[in-house]
Amino acid sequence: MNIIYEKSTAEDYVSLRIRSGMGKKDIERSRIAIENSLFTASIYDDDKLIAFGRVVGDNGITYVVSDVMVDENYRRKGYANRIMDVIDEYLDINTFEDSYISLIANSPADCIYSKHKFEYLPKGKCGMLRNQNKF
User: Is Nuclease given among the entry's keywords (predicted)?
Assistant: First the structure.
């Protein structure tokens, strides 16, 4: 199975989110998100999206690796690493020494990213998520 660099459809993306355990997202917002991605990589088994990853950001300083996911039925076959390999290639070519490149990983998948130049935050730094629950 080859890596496809064309942007996947929002329907394929949301379907894979569900099959990978990452949860459902709104189709229209997903379409906007994919369209605004700097880089996407997809692996299909025939017409079925089985692995995906993307890079988002401002294309100058800040880049975020996002939505690296693999269908639960295709795990442990190296697809996440293949997606990360091409994301690494993209980042090597399109980012700069002073670029800020980050990601948030779900455990235990975080172990994959250390093979791709990512490190845990050093002492004195922490990652945070904004609470989007409406009060």
Answer: no
